[in-house]
Specification:
This protein folds into two domains: about 5-225, no CATH class; about 250-435, no CATH class. It has 14 helices and eight strands. It has helices at about 35-60, 110-120, 120-140, 145-165, 175-190, 205-220, 220-225, 245-250, 255-270, 325-330, 335-355, 360-380, 395-405, 415-430; strands spanning about 5-10, 70-75, 95, 100-105, 285-290, 300-305, 310, 315-320. The protein starts with 5 loop residues before the first strand and ends in a 6-residue tail after the last helix. The structure holds zinc ion. Zinc ion binds next to strand 1, helix 3 and helix 4.
């Protein structure tokens, strides 16, 4: 199957970004200056530089042929070049056209909005993704399901991003952790709507899978991406199972979500804590809510979410802001965003109770992996033993969004949410055994 147009469709671009952090605007001084079209062109030239250097390595030594049809901004009134004879219909989009071997983007809305809301580096990543489709066309690997091609393009974009992070880009200076998190936040806005079947025409993959593909590209490079095939790519996207679930978006009411999730986390740790080094019998963990800004007394709080949630080792309880943070996570992201917060607190308690650190970098990443191991359990257990909590499409995305909202870069551990998502995903995909 060869799609005529392979593009990113933006389902929603919100003015304030998607996180809970007060500002999603990055520093812009480390990026190309000027109009967003300049940013796009400089990004594409840099991506081209990357592929000239990298392509022979993934194509058995063959030299790279750059895009022949050019780079084309378009607006409602100035359409892009004809692509395979399809009538032009204005959409906020960016796409590669295999027919004319060109890349086009909406210079009127999409790109300026992405740049304003998430920073220029996201524009670079979007263009690296589109250029990735041109690379697929050159490799001759396009006869795969759309979701595989989309994730491969994300992975190729990650391979380019690694070059930027290494300081080799001609378009961007080395980004800091916060800029990378802003970029990941932007990618979440470009995800498929929850409930899109993975093999649907135009499926890009959910945010969880897309961030994984991007991270694999960053960590393992373009050769890893080039090996993506239907048979070896783990895709977590699943359709909604019932009409009711589709109507509610798969979300439980807030209070019910908290209650069920806390009970489930309790049961999970009661079953598994004994298997961890330093673990043993799990004592019932007390979960408290508190009003914003008034955490309960604790001599030695192990804080999460910038103090809006905590485990108290001396009192052996967890507590979270149940008047602002909890409801905001729930309303802005979804019920499993609250699950991510509880998962983090239970994992923090487990790590503390077994005498391991949560305060250094590795300790924090272990907490994230342990939280992911509970998600893994929710995903893999039999329905019979399931006590009313079942993950719905979009829950994994909600977890990723929640980590971006309350686990962003900026704390003293120097970890980005991007790093934390990778640790969480490891627990989700591989389970408790890989975390410690
Ligand atoms: Zn694409």
């Amino acid at each position: 199957m060869r799609a005529l147009r392979i593009g990113l469709v933006v389902t929603a671009v919100v003015a304030a970004g998607c996180g809970l952090a007060p500002s999603t605007r990055p520093e812009v001084d480390s990026a190309p200056t000027g109009s967003s079209d300049d940013v796009v062109t400089k990004s594409l030239q840099d991506v081209e530089r990357f592929w000239k250097a990298t392509y022979p390595d993934v194509a058995g030594g063959q030299a790279f042929t750059t895009i022949q049809g050019g780079f084309h901004p378009y607006t409602e009134r100035t359409p892009p070049p004809d692509c395979g004879g399809q009538p032009f219909e204005y959409q906020p989009n960016a796409f590669y056209c295999p027919d004319g071997d060109f890349i086009a983007w909406d210079a009127q809305q999409l790109i300026p909005q992405l740049q304003d809301n998430f920073g220029p580096l996201l524009v670079g990543v979007v263009m690296a993704h589109e250029y990735g489709h041109a690379v697929q066309a050159r490799l001759g690997d396009t006869d795969q399901p759309t979701v595989v091609l989309e994730q491969q393009a994300d992975c190729f974009a990650g391979a380019w991003l690694a070059d930027v992070q290494a300081g080799r880009s001609t378009a961007f200076k080395k980004p800091d952790a916060g800029q990378v998190d802003n970029t990941v936040a932007g990618i979440l806005m470009l995800r498929d709507q929850p409930g899109t079947p993975a093999l649907a025409e135009g499926a890009h993959g959910n945010a969880f899978d897309r961030v994984r593909a991007l991270q694999e590209g960053v960590e393992q490079g373009a050769r890893k991406c080039a090996g993506y095939r239907e048979g070896n790519l783990q895709v977590t996207e699943v359709p909604f199972s019932s009409r009711e679930e589709a109507a509610t978006g798969g979300d439980l009411p807030y209070d019910q979500a908290i209650e069920l999730l806390a009970k489930d986390a309790q049961d999970y740790w009661a079953r598994t804590f004994g298997s961890l080094p330093g673990g043993g019998e799990w004592q019932q963990l007390q979960v408290q809510g508190f009003a914003a800004g008034s955490p309960p007394d604790c001599q030695d709080p192990d804080e999460s979410a910038e103090g809006a949630a905590l485990y108290c080792p001396s009192g052996d309880f967890v507590a979270f802001d149940n008047s602002d943070l909890g409801p905001r996570l729930y309303q802005r992201i979804g019920d499993f965003a609250v699950g991510m917060l509880l998962g983090d607190l239970f994992a923090r308690a487990a790590q503390d109770r077994r005498g391991a650190s949560t305060s250094d970098r590795n300790g924090q990443l272990t907490v994230d992996c342990l939280a992911g191991s509970w998600t893994n359990d929710l995903l893999t257990r039999d329905d019979q033993e399931n006590q009313g909590v079942r993950l719905s499409p979009g829950d994994l995305d909600e977890a990723v969004s929640a980590l971006l909202a309350f686990g962003r870069a900026g704390d003293d551990k120097g970890l980005s949410a991007f790093d934390r998502i990778a640790a969480y995903r490891k627990g989700v995909l591989e389970g408790l055994g890989v975390c410690v």
